[in-house]
Design a protein that fits this description.
alpha+beta, Ubiquitin-like (UB roll), Creatine Kinase, Chain A, domain 2, Four Helix Bundle (Hemerythrin (Met), subunit A), 3 domains, nine-stranded mixed β-sheet, six-stranded mixed β-sheet, 26 helices, 17 strands, about 50% helix, binds adenosine-5'-diphosphate, binds magnesium ion
Amino acid sequence: MSSLRFKVVDEAFNRKADPVEIPAERPEKYYGKYVFNRQRMFEYLPADTFEALINAIDNKEPLPRNVADSVAEGMKQWAIDNGARHYSHWFQPLTETTAEKHDAFIEHDGKGGVIERFNGKLLVQQEPDASSFPNGGIRNTFEARGYSAWDISSPAFILDNTLCIPTIFISYTGESLDYKTPLLRALNSVDKAATAVARYFDPEVKHVRSYLGWEQEYFLVDESLYSARPDLMLTGRTLMGHESAKNQQLEDHYFGAIPSRVEAFMLDLEIECHKLGIPAKTRHNEVAPNQFELAPIFEETNLANDHNLLLMSLIGEVARRHHFRVLLHEKPFAGINGSGKHNNWSLGTDRGVLLFSPGKTAKDNLQFITFTVNVMAAVHRHNALLKASIMSATNAHRLGANEAPPAIISIFTGSQLAEILERIATSSNEQLTDIATHEGMQLNVSQIPEIMLDNTDRNRTSPFAFTGNRFEFRAVGSTANCASAMIALNAVVAEQLMRFHAAVERRRAAGEELRHALLEEIRALIVESAPIHFDGNGYSDEWREEAARRGLDCETSTPLIFDAYLRPATVDMFRTTGVMTEVELAARNEVKWEMYTKKVQIEARVLGDLALNHILPVAVRYQSVLLDNVTKLSALYPMEKVREMAAGELGTIENISEHTRIIKSQVECMVDARREANRIESERAKAIAYHDNVVPCMDVIRYHIDKLELMVDNEMWPLPKYRELLFIR
Ligand code: ADP
Ligand code: MG
């Protein structure tokens, strides 16, 4: 009866790997082919233009207008030589995807024909009519203009025959309407603050850069199966589906052999990444069936983030070529692992030193301890904000379930770093000086490189882990724009380093020696931030209680978690670091609440439709088959005998009635709850109403549908089941 389901399962089952066009050359030849990088700039720009542009990029200076004209000319020529016909400002509105509006290069030539033109003005700044992007009330409708402006620190690239120019996006009144603007401000701020502190150890340091290495997790589903699941198509996740008898319990997928269809797709994707200058390096199967990961070599944070956004659009395109659909959703399937996007993050000086990397000398190690302890203090003070920075309607399904971090931010240090911190906290400066000057003593600050053995940890329940030379922010969701987490993290660390620098300077002004002042402040920070340190099991109930006792933020309701953005300490932090104003923060929260509401609203509608139009009719049809059987039996046998013979059927008939009755009434409840929530004016209160009153109905509906899936004749069930969706052959 459910012929569609069997047809699509059959199609998916029989699909073979698609061929991949493998370039004849090695990657080093085609790497960055579609990027206007320094090599291309050198080739296509006049010498003085090239120099002026590089100078502006390296020293973060504005680009003179006449230089911009010359850059535009060279960039256009390069783009045309590579088949481009259009150009587009490419920006990151608050929707968690990228936006682009394409314009052809053509203009009238005055003789009835056209000529291809591009100038500095078009390159540097545009005014997209931006009234349809989320702005949280910053722009009045009568002043709908937004400006996009070229971010010269991220190179232009060609995607689908369009020259894409990475830009920031701001309102007419100067407030940011995107992720890139505050990210650049946060990176600037952490550069300044970290440079001041790094100069205690090396006076030659001029800049400190922030680095990001993301690990993108995703699921693949065959396109035929996908097309038979309206929930996947419209919401990115399955709103129903009983667990498959086999899923990840045998742990046979993680790092397992990659199926040939998937391998072809991955190769294709990597080639595309490399052409676009995305240094894709690692690929492997993830824990859940049909779950995979792609990770590049880490890059400067702003560029790495642009590359992640580009990857997220590229991956969908390449998947289609291979008859797959990519699911970037944090929790496409209940009961098995969800997808995250670990943000490996570090700071490094322009002198080539990674600041979270233990060094060879006592001085290097004091620097390592200084920066590490400051990160811990910053994460401790702003743990609620960091959680808010990774929270969303979709990530809420992942946190706290199946190997994902819990919804409490803590830091995993590993036992070795923990011991060193403990040692510093409990020793006097004299003892430490002593230790530092005697060789061969264990747990000596100068001996850190010798004992740093367990660099990586496999404690996946930790949302924020020290992993040898970097921190890994693991709570970030797979659909997220990493900028959200990176804005918060870099800004809180900048604020903390500013405080630290000021405190050390006060001590020095009072006549203390630098080393003494540093150690005093470090010791105070270790003690102050101790509550954020937790190496244990983040899933345990004890941890939840313990975390609350320690004063860490334990809120689990997404709309309430967003409140952290508007707390006085947060507003103050973003103001002193120059990253965001209170007006911007308030506007962004409006957008967050609105997005939350809309996502739940769409899911609730899809679930209601599926329940009423797909599931209930089938359940009732199956119930009548059973009833029919019982009726026929009763024509032949006495009622008592029938009760005995058809005991199972009769039970199922009643169970179906019970489940369908509950589903129907819960759908009504859900619709009422939605109607009531929609009448609420405030975005915050509306989001809370959706969270408190709509989501619980959805959970109940799903529970009963999944029960029906186990009862109803397999032949009749209309939607591809988990066991069919999750195993690519
Ligand atoms: P794992 O799965 O063990 O965490 P992966 O190799 O999958 O490790 O990912 C590690 C990621 O961290 C890569 O993207 C890598 O480039 C990045 N990375 C390594 N060192 C640093 C660093 N110092 N700063 C930022 N990212 C880093
Ligand atoms: Mg990792």
